[in-house]
Amino acid sequence: QVQLVESGGGTVQPGGSLTLSCTPSRRIASIYVMGWYRQAPGKQRELVAHIAVSGSAYYADSVKGRFTISRDNAKNTMYLQMNNLEPEDTAVYYCNAGSWGQGIQVTVSS
Question: Cα–chain-centroid distance for residue 13?
Fold first, then answer.
């Protein structure tokens, strides 16, 4: 089971930006699909975006045009660049590669 280490969360004002990182315990090039999910208080965990080894990406409608998912084989890391953040983006964000990361808090508040 691949272990995942997430970083980059925090608190930001509306309209701000954050970048989340996820580093797996094995070569990222061997993981066909990786993704980011999030869970807001009182809500179910939802898919934010995922990316295949080919680079093909999918985004939830709520983040299209604001978030960008990418993977860097050389750094063995997946990223989620989040721009124009909204209070509704506040959640715990989880990396997934067949297993789950520990989760990282993102808070958007003025």
Answer: 18
Dump pLDDT digits (tens) for 10-19.
999 999 999 9
SS (H, E, C) 56-89: CEEECCCCCCCEEEEEECCCCEEEEEECCCCHHH
**Distance between CA 3 and CA 26 in Å, rounded?**
8
Measured CA distances, 98 to 13, 16, 34, 50, 107 (Å): 32, 30, 8, 12, 26
pLDDT of residue 1: 87
Q: Which helix (H) or strand (E) holds 95?
A: strand 91-96
- Residues 6 or more apart whose CB falls under 8 angstroms from that of 9 comprise 18, 20, 93, 104, 105, 106
Q: What is the mean pLDDT of residues 54-68?
A: 97
